Amino acid sequence: MNPQMLFWVPALLRMSLLLLFVGITGYFFGPAIAFGLGTAGFGLVVLVQLKYLYRLSGWLDDPDSEKLPDGWGAWTDVFSRLYRLRRDDEKNRTELGEWLTRFRQAMSLLPDGVVIMDDVLFLEWCNPAAERHLGLQNLRDKGMRVTNLIRSPDFMDYIILGRYEHPLTLTLRERKLIVQIIPFENRRQILVTHDATESERIDMMRRDFIANASHELRTPLTVINGFLEIASSQPNLDAQTRSAHLKLMTEQGHRMQNLVEDMLTLTRLESIEYPLRPERVAVKALLEQIMDEAKALSAGRHTITLSADGPDIKGGTEELRSAFGNLVSNAVRYTPEGGTIKISWKMSKSGPQFAVQDNGIGISPEHIARLTERFYRVDKGRSRETQGTGLGLAIVKHVLLRHDAILTIDSKPEQGSTFIVSFPITAAMADTFSAASDSVAAVG
Q: For residues 378 and 368, what is the distance between their CA atoms, to the nearest angstrom?
């Protein structure tokens, strides 16, 4: 049966019973009494209905103010249905609130900015990334027009033209942003921002790296090709000239080989496919080998000393050999003849520490922060004279990153430089840590 018919059945039964009661009363007591009782009965029924209508009206004005009223008769079913509707509504609102909370939490974790606006660009909500990208504040700026908050002629043109199918590249707050508006629903729009500053910087580094590598390789190739052309066009060169040409070509060939090896080393250090495999590194023995190589490079032109009483550490032997060797060889290359180079390895209060100190040409303060960049040179002419590849300190930087170590540079022009590598205290091997600690305590 139709639910609406079921709703009216109890009411019709009660009306039938009332009419039957009035009829019986009229039969036994007369029409006057029956009419009076019938009028009173109908009046009572009307008053009861008005009472429940009044209670229902009060509840509908403020559904959350009080509990849903109870009913009698047909009102029982009415209030029961309203109760179920209210319960379902509260459940839906709770679920909607939970989904909204999850949505905002998810949007807050996104690296991209998300701004929700109405159809006339008034701000409704934005996530923290959008606040950083655009300088907005969700609580402060809510309800304000976004075009009044983002002061950019390019952005205004983008809004006016309305070509939202294409993103806009925008420079704002010293950052490069990719911005796009996505209409959704009928009266809302989403403004999405992507910070491309880092990717642009990496892309620029890649372009600079290729350009610098090409330049560095072109010079020795030009020399080698030039001498080969001379040799092919002048087959009767005297032995002394031919020998000098072969010597220069060999030097340039070694220069190219060193450059390629350094580039391959950098690629390996940056690759996740070559994770660090820690082993016990006997640093003292390693530094003795590096000092012997430095003396061979110096050819007696410098005084080179080593002080090594620090502990063995956990790390990659070959990687540390490359890092320490680069720092020592740089000291030899950039220290004039007769200079002094001091190599030390000790246990400091914060952890193991390697240092190379020289009294060479030194470095101006404006160059120090950029020394570990690829192919960065303070003096390009001198770097070519010393046969450097321009990648040594970049290799040092990446080796130390893999060992959680820090490079500190202290240098003054014409006075010399000190390069200090500080390892965490956890890098020291336990069996050599106590002896090194004792020496630190004795010095302190």
A: 9
